[in-house]
Amino acid sequence: MLDIKTVRQDPEAVAAQLARRGFEFDVSAFRQLDARRKQADMDSQALLAERKTASKKIGQLVGEGMSVDAAKAQVNETLEKIAAQLDDLTDQAKQVQSELDELLAGVPNLLAADVPDGKSEEDNVELARWGEPKRFDFPVRDHVALGEALQQLDAETGGKITGSRFTVMYGPLARLHRALIQFMLNLHTGEHGYREIYVPYIVNRDSLRGTGQLPKFEEDLFKLVGEQDYYLIPTAEVPVTNVARDRIFEDAELGEHGIRFACHSPCFRSEAGSYGRDTRGMIRQHQFEKVELVQLVRPGQSDAALEALTGHAERVLQLLELPYRKVALCAGDTGFSARRTYDLEVWLPAQDTYREISSCSNFGDFQARRMLARWRNPETGKPELLHTINGSGLAVGRTLVAILENYQQADGSVQVPSVLAPYMGGLSSL
Q1: I need a labelling partner for 32 at 20 to 30 A (CA). Which of 121, 271, 339, 392 fits?
Q2: Is residue 385 a part of any domain in this protein?
Q3: Does a structural domain hold residue 429?
């Protein structure tokens, strides 16, 4: 959520920044709500002052010859009227504040100044490439054809069990999927200084509101039916980041580089509005796995933290020897809560293009303000908002897709990347 002080200071400037995203901020609605809230506060202060004056009037009335009981009765009558007015004003103020909070809850983050302009992914800016796409001397198959021919990938059974966009894996392919998860966790906890964390796969509304999925993106979520307001997680970012909700960390707890969490979890997404896109295979599933990286840092560290976290995700691709490119998302393609995002896109031979496999974002204090996630600044002794950073390190299903397609052989088999050999029990190919 944006700092309301920043919005009040210059709402037109905020609107101009948000316009880069294609978001229209209603300055007039904000001014009207904020004016109503301010007026309610002023009226409340005036009534409190009137109540204080009235409370002192008993002695004055007694001094003028009125009996104590009569003086109390007259003053109490006035105080009761003031109390009723205060109650009414309090209700009004709460209602206006609720409307103001709801308005701001639907406003995206302000972008970093150097985020490139643009409206869609077509305007994203390529920053770097790693590796050379392999050129095959045989017809390239996509991951579905490869997996089905090996009798290890089965979308039909997934559809029978649940519905479209669910998949069953068997044997060595299922083991390779598991190997990727273990490899990523070991890499991030062993080399990159992350602390492994296990979290619930079901979260409440407050958690989703804290990271910015609610209220704007409810249609993208799977909501559970029942008395509790529960949802399946769309990403481990939600429960992991909410570890810091309503909490103040001491400076020593943050260490030199902040707090780093690595978490494997399934993810559940309705993929609302994506009908017809990537319906074949494992590119866009309703259920998939990720190893998520989350960092909680001091404000001055968040830009460096994003660079580091992105590098940690890149390291996975490099060790797997999968060609990829790094792009800076343009203003119109940057997610709701992010101030800056890098996408890593892996090469998929069957599509003859790069496809997103990780999205790494710096949210600044946007999520922390919604969650009241803070640290105590030792220089002031006062709590301040943390900055949050997260990214996929990596999306497991898409990594599996990339391995199948990049490591395929002419006979239809698939080589196992050498770095995964220790996790595969001696298997060198599928």
Answers
A1: 339
A2: yes
A3: no
- Domain boundary (74, 105, 136) is at 105
Please tell me whether residues 98 and 125 are part of one structural domain.
no
- Interatomic CA distance for residues 80 and 42, integer angstroms: 20
pTM > 0.70: yes or no:
yes
Do 227 and 286 belong together in one domain? yes
115 in a domain, yes or no? no
Number of domains the chain contains: 2
**Residue 311 and residue 377 in one domain:** yes
Residue 189 belongs to domain with CATH number: 3.30.930.10
Express the helix, strand and coil content of the chain in percent, nearest 5 each.
Answer: 45, 20, 35
Domain C-terminal end among 81, 105, 129: 105
β-strands 373-377, 287-297 pairing? unpaired
List the alpha helices (DSSP H) in 106-236.
143-149, 155-161, 171-190, 205-211
Asked, for residue 146, whether it belongs to a domain, the answer is yes
> What CATH number did the domain enclosing 30 receive?
1.10.287
Q: Which domain holds residue 71?
A: 26-105
Q: Provide the residue-wise pLDDT of the chain in tens; the chain has 430 residues.
A: 999 999 999 999 999 999 999 999 999 999 999 999 888 888 877 777 777 777 666 556 556 666 666 766 766 777 777 777 777 777 888 888 889 989 999 999 999 999 999 999 999 999 999 999 999 999 999 999 999 999 999 999 999 999 999 999 999 999 999 999 999 999 999 999 999 999 999 999 999 999 999 988 899 999 999 888 999 999 999 999 999 999 999 999 999 999 999 999 999 999 765 555 677 888 989 999 999 999 999 999 999 999 999 999 999 999 999 999 999 999 999 999 999 999 999 999 999 999 999 999 999 999 999 999 999 999 999 999 999 999 999 999 999 999 999 999 999 999 999 999 999 998 999 9
Same domain for 285 and 328?
yes
